Every structure is written in structure tokens, then in C-alpha cells.
Amino acid sequence: NAGVTQTPKFQVLKTGQSMTLQCAQDMNHEYMSWYRQDPGMGLRLIHYSVGAGITDQGEVPNGYNVSRSTTEDFPLRLLSAAPSQTSVYFCASSYSGGEFDEQFFGPGTRLTVL
Amino acid sequence: GDSVTQMEGPVTLSEEAFLTINCTYTATGYPSLFWYVQYPGEGLQLLLKATKADDKGSNKGFEATYRKETTSFHLEKGSVQVSDSAVYFCALTQGSPQLSFGAGTTVTVRA
Description:
By secondary structure, chain A is mainly beta. Chain A is built from no helices and 11 strands. Chain B has strands at 3-6, 11-14, 19-21, 23-26, 32-38, 44-50, 56-59, 62-65, 75-77, 86-93, 100-101, 105-110.
């Protein structure tokens, strides 16, 4: 199993550009989520999904869109990038979305918006 | 809302030293508590967890006890190694899989 994979590893954008961060998992997990990691702030939840076709907002959803058309994939879209979105982005998944489930994290995407 | 506060870093230690990272939480109910570790250049990995009061989580020589009376979940290891150099995150969930993280503590162990 590859676990949780994310692409790209690094990305530089100009303000106003759009892009999609890819996330895939091969563990047949129902629950997937996106976090951003900023210095001194830990990780904050952006969006999450409890299954294909179902998504919801987390703590910091503004400026980001998601969709979940398959169990395996959960892409994160930035429609018009802003410097405030410079961050490291992590995708995570867990088996059923239970409170006690271990969450598995991808290696992250480091995004810089100029 | 629920929140986690952990000690600020960075923390620098010599090999075989004792490590403690303090973590306290604020929650209205009975959260589950976690420690995640992030090694350089990698994503987060679950280190240990505790799901009810007085539970002790342990893994790789690390331990943490869920103390409801002090709302704490301090991480300890008796003898650290260079390979323990990482960022450690305390986190909680309550009623859902959404993790609330502390700010993270960077630990560097010198040979």
C-alpha cells in the first residue's frame, strides 16, 4: 500500500492563479480531510469528507474548494491564490471517521504564493 | 471551542536525557487525546493515544497519561535518541474525527 499520497511536493504560484492539490489514498478509507500547517499554529482543518459525494467545511475553508467523486481521491482547489495561502498542506484519511480512528497523513505539499 | 495548549519550543537535549513536553486541553466533554510526531520532511504519524481518563498511551518508549483532573496529557520519554528529533503535536477529538492540534514543539536531540 502506498498509503496517502500528495502531489505536487512543492509549488510556487503568483497571486490570482489557480491550482489543484491532489490527494489519494489506497486504504479504502471513508474519511478524508485537508489541513494547513502554519508556524506557531499547529494544523488547522480546511475541509473534510465522510464519504464519496459528501464534503463539509472545517475551521478555515475560505478560498478553498473540494469535491469527493471517488473514495480514493480528495483534491483541494485554490481558485484565486493569495499570499495568505502560503502554507504546508496535509491530506489525511481514516477508516470510518470514528473519533478514535488513527488518521494517516500524506507527506505534504509546500505552497508559496507570491 | 475545544483547544490544546502545548509548551513552546524549541527544546534541545543531549542523548539519553529525559524529555517532557507539556500539553493541556480545554474541552466541554470527554475528548480523546493524541500525540502525533512529524519527522523532518515527512507527514504526521500517530505516536500514541488515550481515549478516557487515567488511560496511559505508550509507544516507542514514549508515554502519556490522560489526567482529567488537571486536563493534561504530558508526553515523556526516559532516554531520548538522536532519532527522536522531530516536531511533536498534541491533539484532541471530541465526538468527531476532526483533530484540534496544539502549535507543535520542536525537539532536537544532540549526540
